[in-house]
Amino acid sequence: MLVTDRRQFLKSAALMAGASGVAQSGTDESQRAQWLDTAERLKPRLHATQVAPVSIVKPIADASQFLRWRMERVSPADTLRERVMRRADSVILDFGRHLTGHLEFSIDGEGRGIDAPTRLKLTFGEVAPEVAGPFDPYHGALSRAWLQDEVINIDVLPNTLQLPRRYAFRYVKVEVIDTSPNYAIRLDRVQATALSSAGAEPPPLGKATPELLRQIDAVSIATLRDCMQTVFEDGPKRDRRLWIGDLRLQALTNYATFRNFDLVKRCLYLFAAFPREDGMVSACVFEDPKPYRGHEYIVDYAALYVATVLDYAKASNDWVTARELWPVVQQQMEILERYVRGDGLFAAPAGAWVFIDWNNRLDRTAAMHGVFVYSLRQALALAHKCGAEPQATEYERRFAQMAAAARTAFYDPVLQICVSGPKRQISWATQAWMVLSGIVTKEEGAQAFRAIREIPDAIHPGAPYLYHYVAEAMIACGLKQEALELIESYWGGMVKAGADTFWEVYDPSNAMLSPYNSVLVNSYCHAWSCTPAYLLRR
Ligand code: RAM
């Protein structure tokens, strides 16, 4: 059969490639099945840590707080067992830290005969607002089911329960919806099992590091720890899945902290195993009930898969994996190259999802061009390592052409800044990617960052994902002190606002910012926000 023949051909070609050290392009079904197998063999066992609540707390509305609430300590958590609760009573437990995991507790009843079930509502919150007020009416754009609440009916007392779902939380609110008026209930032995594949904590930053930076580092590490499950999840509350953009930043931070190389390798193979029919990697992958690809394709995420492979190989020195994944890398470049116009400018097809940042006002043309050129450079380095010299030559030629085209289109020599789109929009995203791609020189980049600081209506980043690339670009053009100041003010701002883990979105001037029309569904432990631990160790 033709297909078998083709597979045979590819297999023998791959074997030949292995012998000569030259990797081949293209992937086939049996190869993808093997990659899935590799990914599944690397699935980690999670470490479990028992965490007990530390306090009973009460939310107080407080306009001076960024999130509009502060938690006041009422009593130590072990006073819970003395608390007699009846219909409409409630209590909020504070675990003193963020965690991803399960909850269990015991419940007993006292009074005249237990003649009715007990109905409890449990609400889990990463931050105070989630347990301070009701979730409903909910107007968010994403499913209401992401909000972490449950109603349970308990028929028999005493009882010990472990809730079946996994939650991401620091606070748990328990409300007694009903019991029989004949009796009251008491809760006891409330305990959480925190899960993570992160392993041993990395050493903290040296004592000479200023306190705020040490706190930022600790929060970054906690963020990464709680997102590290059987894949690098974007957020353990939401979306609980593997996205390329998040993976890349988590992996970089992981190399500087937990150094769990196998988890990155597993994730790279998961993407490789489930490309679209034309070979483009999907933007996200789900794990359950068995791994499958998400239905979204993000142009810049596909490009950044290339960098993620290169970063991994460099950090782990596992070039065998890089060579095995080379066909996937090459295919991303091939697919994306089709969007490069004759004049050397990248033009994503209409309707394609170019992410770059959560900011609707952002003109993404220059930044996307920059991401692609950046990826060309990563692909070039990989091509050399994989013995793919013809591709290396081609990438070099493309780089020269696209860098020159970008200078003409995006660099304004008078303003000494990069611009994007027909309205010559000035944004932080554009500067960051023009620097990281090597399109502007270090000196030009440094000047552009100095200039943009004086332009208040320049388009600011909307989320930590882009703030990371801004900081990274500042470091790349020698503005290390400015990058440090950015980390202190931006991520430090979240620490000062009480973050135990870094948030998916944070705009110091707008506490109500949500890409989903409800801050309740924002994730407050988010992968792409964990990078200060990496940036501070650079
Ligand atoms: C959201 C998630 C995720 C991100 C995508 C693009 O759903 O926050 O982290 O990578 O968008």
Q: Care to describe what's here?
A:
The protein has about 550 residues and is α+β, with helices and mostly antiparallel strands. It is about 40% helix and about 20% strand. The protein has two domains: about 5-45 and about 200-535, Glycosyltransferase; about 50-195, Jelly Rolls (Sandwich). It has 15 helices and 14 strands. The radius of gyration is 25 Å and the shape is globular. It binds alpha-L-rhamnopyranose. Alpha-L-rhamnopyranose binds near residues 239 and 246.
What string, H for helix and E for strand, traces the elements in order?
A: HHEEEEEHEEEEHEHHEEHHHHEEHHHHH
* CATH class bucket of the largest domain: Mainly Alpha
Question: Which percent range fits the helix content?
Answer: 25-40%
Distance between the termini: 54 Å
Number of DSSP-assigned strands: 14
Major β-sheet annotation: 9 strands, antiparallel
Number of domain units: 2
> What Rg is obtained from the alpha carbons, in whole angstroms?
25 Å
Shape type: globular
Total helices: the number is 15
Which segments are poorly predicted (pLDDT under 50) over 5 or more consecutive residues? 1-25
The fraction of residues assigned to DSSP E strands is: 15-25%
Strand pairing plus helix content: what structural class?
A: alpha+beta
* Average pLDDT rating: 94
Ions, cofactors and other bound molecules: alpha-L-rhamnopyranose
Write the layout of secondary structure elements.
Layout: H1 2-20, H2 29-41, E1 47-51, E2 55-61, E3 69-76, E4 90-111, E5 118-125, H3 128-132, E6 149-154, E7 159-162, E8 167-178, E9 183-196, H4 211-227, E10 242-243, H5 244-256, H6 261-273, E11 284-286, E12 292-293, H7 299-316, H8 319-337, H9 365-385, H10 389-410, E13 411-412, E14 417-418, H11 428-436, H12 442-453, H13 464-476, H14 480-496, H15 532-535
Antiparallel strand pairs: 1-9, 2-3, 2-4, 4-7, 4-8, 4-9, 5-6, 5-8, 10-11, 11-12, 13-14
The structure holds alpha-L-rhamnopyranose (RAM).
